[in-house]
Fold this sequence. Notes:
The protein is of the alpha/beta class. Helix content is 42%, strand content 15%.
Amino acid sequence: xxxxxxxxxxxxxxxxxxxxxxxxxxxxxxxxxxxxxxxxxxxxxxxxxxxxxxxxxxxxxxxxxxxxxxxxxxxxxxxxxxxxxxxxxxxxxxxxxxxxxxxxxxxxxxxxxxxxxxxxxxxxxxxxxxxxxxxxxxxxxxxxxxxxxxxxxxxxxxxxxxxxxxxxxxxxxxxxxxxxxxxxxxxxxxxxxxxxxxxxxxxxxxxxxxxxxxxxxxxxxxxxxxxxxxxxxxxxxxxxxxxxxxxxxxxxxxxxxxxxxxxxxxxxxxxxxxxxxxxxxxxxxxxxxxxxxxxxxxxxxxxxxxxxxxxxxxxxxxxxxxxxxxxxxxxxxxxxxxxxxxxxxxxxxxxxxxxxxxxxxxxxxxxxxxxxxxxxxxxxxxxxxxxxxxxxxxxxxxxxxxxx
Length: 404
């Protein structure tokens, strides 16, 4: 048969290709081995970052203020007796303000929040014709966020709460804060209470509702208590009913948490497609939450002081979520969304029965896993605003808690 090309130029088999084909199995095994090694190195590095403790990670956090005010007392809360004057002054008198190009009022961090100069601070207030009493109240309000715990021994748990001087009278505010103080003192825990209005400069930039302030407060608490193990956010419309219950022994110990974790639980009950993982190790849980209706309940939830928890707070507080128009319950809806679409966070989340840390108040006696029952740890007045009964319920449950 006649060839179409000169016989001496007949193509020869490429020796490299032949050898490659001959050793394909060995090469595949080597590639797989290298991939496994890389994955193990990455996972080990991330695990070390998570378990390194708050000391390594917290140094990367920064305060909202230029300088700190060190305190040795782990019970950090504002001067509640200032509430009437703060309400009288109004938030416009507490911050510098400006109107942007769109006509939106912005609240600005004043000199008191960024400088330590006492003389500069006094000149600022005197120019506003404030009395000495108003000067003291305003200064206390603006500098409260600078407090940072520097005691020799860090509390295991810090209870974080926001209080609103525009919403409640001094009587109710005292009961809310004293409830946390009484509980924390019983177990050598810390508390971190801030005025909701302190975060107006951050909220006004995004035209965000007060509900989002909890994330700024949590971030500030993590900075103020860098070595705490857990942060328990508890809404002001909630009351600790059992001072005798130690949160760590009661829930946060992995051996205790494991059997009560709701595994394969829909994130959006009752028929949501995305569910909690069946094999989540309780020792790896960084977020403990409950549910109310079709939402994650953020009236009472716990974050472990880890790299992942800090990442969650930053991500959850992103401008994209705050500006999204289709989150009916604001921060709660945003967290529900995050857990559905970001499996890394879901893998470190435990959903527990509501009555564990957030039993819902009910006008009638209900015996279920959702509503508060006598002897439960915590009660949450979730719908009290709609019923216009918040102050009444605070007074009622405060009296019950203190009578024990």
